[in-house]
Amino acid sequence: MIQLTERARGYLRRHLEGGTRYLRVTVVPGGCSGMTYHAAVVGELGDDEEVVYEDGGIRISSDAFSKYFLHGLEIDYSDDLIKPGLTLTNRLATQACGCGASFAV
User: Fewer CB under 10 Å: which end of the chain, C or N?
Assistant: First the structure.
């Protein structure tokens, strides 16, 4: 369902260490293509969230609506000076905007 690159694994291990944090991935309507991913490191699960990925101390959570858009998701990390941070890309997207901020499936 979700694939992490080695760079993303390293980044997430550093930021989720101790087993008390999650990477929350949600999908919201918006952008040129219809849907946009949002990701944030959080300390607890929300009322409507569940763990959708767990491996080597990395836990990813999502809500009931968003988890259906996680199939085909690849998470990468870049320390590039222009656009550093996590990059969320869905390999199964049927459409994406030119800047890569939104997608459709």
Answer: N
Nearest to 25 by CA among 17, 8, 99: 8
The helix (H) or strand (E) run that includes residue 28 is strand 22-29
Domains identified in the chain, total number: 1
Amino acid in the structure at residue 80: D
Nearest to 43 by CA among 17, 63, 64: 17
pLDDT of 43 strictly over 70 = yes
Burial class for 80, CB neighbours closer than 10 Å (0-12, 13-18, 19+): exposed
To which H or E segment does residue 8 belong?
A: helix 6-15
CATH number of 69's domain: 2.60.300.12
Domain range for 74: 2-104
pLDDT at 35 over 80: no
Give this prediction's pTM.
0.83
